[in-house]
Amino acid sequence: MRDGTDNDAEQPLVGETFRASGQARVDLHRLLEEQSALRRVATLVARGAEAREVFDVVCVETGRLVGATSVNLNRFTADGLNVTLAGWSLRDTHVPTGTLLPLEGDTVNGQVQRTGALSRFESYDGAEGELAEVIRQRGIRSEVGAPVIVEAHVWGALVAGWDTPEPPPGGAESRIASFAELVAATISTAARRSEEDARARASLEAAHDCIITIDRAGLIVEFNPAAERTFGYSRLEVLGRPMAELIVPPSLRDRHHAGFARYVDTGTGPVLRQKLEMPALRADGSEFLAELTIVPVELPGERLATGYLRDITQVKKRELGLRLLAEVGQLIAAATSDDRLMRDVAQRAVSGFVDCCLIDLVAEGHELRHVALAPTEPEAEPAFARATRGHGSVERLAEAARRVTTSGAEEVVAVSDEGSLATLADDEDEREGLNGFTSYACIPLEAQDGCMGAVTFARAGGSSFDEDDLSLGRDLARRIALALDNSRLSRERLRVLQESRARVLKAQDAERKRLERNLHDGAQQRLVAVGLDLETLRATVFAESASAQTELERIKGELDAILAEIREISQGLHPTLLYEAGLAAALRSLARRSPVPVDLQGHLDERPPPSVEIAAYYVVS
Predict the structure, then answer these.
(1) Helix locations, 415-522, DSSP H
(2) pTM of the predicted model over 0.85
C-alpha cells in the first residue's frame, strides 16, 4: 500500500505529461493544417492553373497558416525594383497589387533580395526607404519573408506581415518557405508552358500546311497563317464560327455533319488519320482540290479534331503536265504524218489541260495553214472551225497566230475584254462553238530555220493561264516544233537521196548509151562485114567440098551467136526483151533461164518508166 508521499511525488509528473500531450496535439493539428494548405496549392499547380490564380491562393493560405494579418508576393526586377504581384490581408494592410518601389532601404524584401535567404524584421520603427515607409503607412509592424528561387536565381519573395505588437511566431519562416517553393514551381511551370506555347505557335505560323482545329460543336478554335493564305479568311474572322459553313463545299456538308457527329459520339471514324483528296471552298466561293488528314484530339472532358490540309492544285497540274508530255512523246515517236500528229496532240491537250487547242503551220508563201482543232466538246468542233475560218471579229484569233509567227513572241490574253470569246463570233452557230472560252495563250513553234507556226490554247470558266500553265504550253510547243523540224529534215534527206539516186541512174544510162554507140558503130559493124565475107566465100567454094561447106556453116553459126550477144550488150547490158516487151516479159525470160524452179506473178496496170523497170529487173535478177 502506497503512502501519501508517493502520491505527492507523482502529481508533477502527471501535469508534465498532460502538458506534453496537449502540445503534441497542437503541433499535430498545425502540421495537418499546413499539409492541407500545401496540398490545396500543389493541386492548383499540378492542374496547370493560371499563375495569377495560384499567387492569390498562396497569399490567402500563407496568411491563415502562420496567423499573419497580411501577405504579399513580390517580384524583383533586374534594375532593383520591387513589384507587388499579389496580396491578402485581414484589415486591408497589404501593399496593393501593382505597387512598384525601389528595393533600397531596410526591409525584408531588400534583405531577401541581397542574401537569397529567409529574413525576419520584428520592427519597422526607424527603417529607411520608400518601401519601408509604405509598409509603416499600411500599419505593418513586423514581417517574415522567404525567397522564391527560380533556376538558381532569386526571383522574388513571399512576405507575411503582422500589425500587432507581438513578434511573428517562431517557425513562420519555414512554413512560408514551403509556399515559396510552390510559387517557384508555378513560375517554372508557367515558363515552360509559355515556352511550349511559343514553340507551338511558331510551328503553327511556320507550317506550310493549313492547320485547322474544331471543337465538338464544329466551331473553329485554331486557324494558322497557312490556312489564312489558302482560304482567304483572317484568323479573327473564323474563330468561333462553324467550319462547315466556311470551307466545306455545299455538296459535301451533309456527309461532313454525319461523319463528325459520329466522331463526337464514338471517337471513331473511317476517315481519321487517312490521307484524303477532296474539294475545299475558299472565301471567294471558288473550289480547289485539297489533300486532307484528320487527327483526333482527346482532352479531359473535351473531344477536338485537327485537320492538316494543303492545296494540291499545282501538284496535280504538274502531274498532268508530266503525263501529257510523256503521251505526246509517244505520239511523236509513232507518228507517220505531220497533220495526223498535230490532230492527235491537239486532242490530247484538251484532256485536262485546256478546253480548246488549235495548231496553225506556215505554208508556202508564208500563209498560215490550219491543221488541227480540238475542243473539249467534240460537237462544238464544226462551229468553232467555221468561226476560225470566218472574216468577222473572230479573225482576231488568226491575227494573233500571224503576229506570233511573225514576231516569234508568245501572246497571252488572260481574260478577253468582251468577257468571253463567244462575243467575237458573228452568228449563232459560231457563238455556240466559242461559248465559255475566256482566255487563250498563243505560243510560237520555233525551229532551226525560224518560226514554223503557232499553237493556241484556249481556256473556259474565267481561269487564266498561270506560269505553270505557260511553262507546260511552251514545253508542248517545243516538242511539236522539234517533231515538225525532224519530219522536215527527214523529208529533206529523202529528197536528197532520191536526187542522188536519180543522178546515179542518169549517169549509168549515159554510160550504157555510150557503150551502145561504141558497140554498134565498132565491133558490131565489123562482125556484120565478116559475116558477109563468109557468105561470099561459101558461094565460091566447090559444091563437091562437103567438108568445107560444113566447116563454113559452123563458123557462120558461131559468128551469128557472137553478133546476137553483142547486140544485147549494145542495149546497155540489159536484155533486148526488157526494152521491147517490158518488165513482165523480161522477168519471164529470166525465170525460164533460171536453174531452179521459179513461180513468177506480175500485175501491172500500165508500163512503168524505164528507170523503174531497170531497177526492178536487177533487184529480181
Answers:
(1) 428-434, 467-521
(2) no
